[in-house]
Amino acid sequence: xxxxxxxxxxxxxxxxxxxxxxxxxxxxxxxxxxxxxxxxxxxxxxxxxxxxxxxxxxxxxxxxxxxxxxxxxxxxxxxxxxxxxxxxxxxxxxxxxxxxxxxxxxxxxxxxxxxxxxxxxxxxxxxxxxxxxxxxxxxxxxxxxxxxxxxxxxxxxxxxxxxxxxxxxxxxxxxxxxxxxxxxxxxxxxxxxxxxxxxxxxxxxxxxxxxxxxxxxxxxxxxxxxxxx
Length: 229
Hints:
By secondary structure, the protein is mainly β. It has two helices and twelve strands. It has an eight-stranded antiparallel β-barrel with strand order 2-3-4-7-9-10-11-12.
C-alpha cells in the first residue's frame, strides 16, 4: 500500500516535525533537575517590624540552614532553622516615663525554626538555569532569656512563614539560593504594661491588645549542595 503524503513529508523533513511539537531538546531553555535533596547554608538580614511597646527583638544579622527533600513533581518537604543576633529595649513599667528604659540595647539572640513545603514554579526543571519557587511552613520561635524586670520575654511563640525565592545556576551539584522569608509571630505583653502605678500613664493604654502579630521580612542568600537521584 502506498504511503500517505504526510508520512513521506515527515520522513524527509524530520526537523520540521520536531519544531511542531516543541523545542529542540538541545536548544530548549528547560533542563531536568538531577537531584532530590538539597542543603543550603545561608546568611542575611532579619528586618523586624516595630511592636507598639518597642520592646521586642529588633533588626539583626541572620544565619542558618535549610533542607529540602523532593516529594514528587515540583513539590518539596522543607525544614529550616535560622538564628538572629538581635538587640532589644528593656523597660521597667513601674518607673516614671523618664526612667523606664533600663537598657536600650540589650543583646537578645533568638532562633526561628519551621517545617513546611515548597513548590518549584518551573516544575522539576530549570529555565535557563533558574528555578523560581514559593514555600510556606509553620514552627516555633525560641528566645531563651528569662522574663525581664518588666515581665516581658520573647518566649517560644508559634510562627508561620511564606517564602518566595529563586535558585540560580542549577546545572550542577551546587547552586545559589536567594529567598525573602516572611516570618509571622505574636508578641505577648505582661499585665504590668497596662497598669498605672504612678503619676504617669502605663506603657500601653489599658484597652490595647495583650498580644500583637508581627510580620518580619528576612532576606537571605546561600550556597546549596544537592545530592540523591
